[in-house]
Amino acid sequence: MKVLYSKECLLHDPPFEILSGEKVPYFEKPKRLTIIEGELKSNGFGISEEVDWDIDLRQHILRVHSVEYLDYLETAYELWVREGGNKIAVIPETFPHVNLLPAPPESAHITNPFARAGLFCFDLSCPITKETHKATLASLRVTLTAAKSLVVGAVNSAFALCRPPGHHAMPSLCGGYCFLNNVAIAARFIQNISPSAIERPKVAILDIDYHHGNGSQATFYDDPSVLYVSLHGENDYPYFTGSASEQGSGKGKGYNVNFPLPRGITGDNEYCDTLQGAVAIVRNFEPSFLLISLGVDTHIDDPISDFKVTTSGYLRIGGIIASIDRPTLFVMEGGYALESIGKNVCNVLQGFKLQVEHQ
Ligand code: Q9C
Ligand code: ZN
């Protein structure tokens, strides 16, 4: 298991977010990463900070995100401050709600930085600070470096220890602490750098973050070459996606599978039973590569989520994922219980390793 990490991921550090109408300290903190790093180190995992500077991020980002959105992420902070916005961070104040509009907005013509803050974002959990984009690019570089080592066959499994996370980020929207969709970009990256012998290798994304990965789902909704399977809290954030009836469209019909699970009562046994079913679907797809959106916000102590998975439950979860038996890239997503986040992530990887050695 190769673990990739970059200190630049720590640069994104907004002081607050608005949660349930309250101004609270930002949950998606840099400390999450340093705690996990420490725990992995004390459990014998080697951690590499050798990111691959040859990877042209822009080219790969633009396979998933729009050029207008990338331009927004690059310039939002500067233009916002220049127009008198607060120096701490860009935070939207108006959203182009569908019922507010006579017609869809022509984003290229909307230049007011306050309007753009709402145009390219769907909630209040993505403040853009001066350093946000630098950290976002570092997070993606960590992910793609790890993906590359899988594709070239240097390793059979890797973990991208990175933040900000990605699975809520849409082609032209940030939201849910996410700016660039690391896993989605990695899926396209893998398909494009794989040796031409295998035409467009099939990639499966298994999303075990507590929240539905609306951005990953949207990116591949009509694409049968990328299977998206998610387990998540039913009717919880991001609220408008994640039902079992969302199964893909056109050629992609059947290649999007959602498992919403009940809030408040889903513990290790219920979770692992459903995960076994999800894993059977992934195996049946016969992907060349497996990407795991690894969130540990399913933990019983998570402050913003509502499942009851225990720290030892993550050992089982890792083992079940290993039974898919494909080259596997874990990419860090959510998880906000700081006292247990290190052990929880470590247990997924340990459970995976133990099962791999066993089979
Ligand atoms: N009551 C990830 O885990 N606020 N993002 C939700 C719920 C945003 C979570 C409020 C949560 C985003 C990557
Ligand atoms: Zn989450």
**Biggest sheet statistics:** 8 strands, parallel
Radius of gyration: 19 Å
Give the helix proportion (percent range): 25-40%
* First-last Cα distance: 16 Å
User: Helix-strand pattern, N to C?
Assistant: EEEHEHHHHEHEHEEHEHEH
Count of individual beta strands: 10
Bound molecule kinds, no repeats: N-{4-[(3-aminopropyl)amino]butyl}acetamide, zinc ion
Mean residue pLDDT:
97
Widest sheet: strand ordering: 4-1-5-10-9-6-7-8
Secondary-structure class? alpha/beta
Uncertain segments:
none
> Tell me, what's the shape?
globular
Strand content: 5-15%
What report would you give on this structure?
This protein is α/β, with parallel strands linked by helices. 35% of the residues lie in helices and 14% in strands. The strands form two sheets. The chain has an eight-stranded parallel β-sheet with strand order 4-1-5-10-9-6-7-8, with helices on both faces. Helix 3 (67-82) packs antiparallel against helix 4 and helix 8 runs parallel beside helix 9 (313-322). The structure holds N-{4-[(3-aminopropyl)amino]butyl}acetamide and zinc ion. Residues 19, 125, 165, 168, 176-178, 209, 211, 237, 295, 297, 304, 333-334 line the site of N-{4-[(3-aminopropyl)amino]butyl}acetamide.
